[in-house]
From TrEMBL:
PANTHER family: FIBRINOGEN/TENASCIN/ANGIOPOEITIN, TENASCIN-R. GO terms for cellular component: extracellular space. This is Fibrinogen C-terminal domain-containing protein. InterPro entries: Fibrinogen-like_C, Fibrinogen_a/b/g_C_1, Fibrinogen_a/b/g_C_dom, Fibrinogen_C-term_domain, Fibrinogen_CS. Keywords: Disulfide bond. It holds the Pfam family Fibrinogen_C. It comes from the Eukaryota. The keyword Nucleotide-binding does not apply. Residues 1-103 form the Fibrinogen C-terminal domain. Gene3D superfamilies: Gamma Fibrinogen, chain A, domain 1 (3.90.215.10), Gamma-fibrinogen Carboxyl Terminal Fragment, domain 2 (4.10.530.10).
């Protein structure tokens, strides 16, 4: 019950070289284990783009506990535990790709 008491906000600061951006969510919760650590996000504001909202309401997946049960095991393929949804738009726990052509 990581965020069960109180209210929380989430701010993610990103930097690549000299470029910086941020994403802010006015409500942030991670549900209890019995809910498989489901992610809950509020309203977004920022300069980084709203990639995290795609993962809102998703359960946390790890290599040995893929809650997505898809053909592509996202946590294994992208080498990081995350709130995967048909893999990801944002993956802050995965490998960083510094290729500017990669989306």
């Amino acid at each position: 019950q990581i965020t069960s008491s109180g209210s929380y906000e989430l701010r993610v600061d990103l930097r690549a070289g000299e470029e910086t951006a941020y994403a802010f969510y006015d409500d942030f919760r991670v549900e209890a284990e019995k809910e498989q650590f489901r992610l809950r996000l509020g309203q977004y504001r920022g300069t980084a783009g709203d990639s995290m909202s795609y993962h809102n309401n998703m359960m946390f997946s790890t290599r040995d506990r893929d809650t997505q049960r898809r053909i592509l095991p996202c946590a294994m393929s992208y080498r990081g535990a995350w709130w995967y949804r048909n893999c990801h738009y944002a993956n802050l726990n995965g490998l960083y790709n510094n290729n500017k052509d990669h989306q």
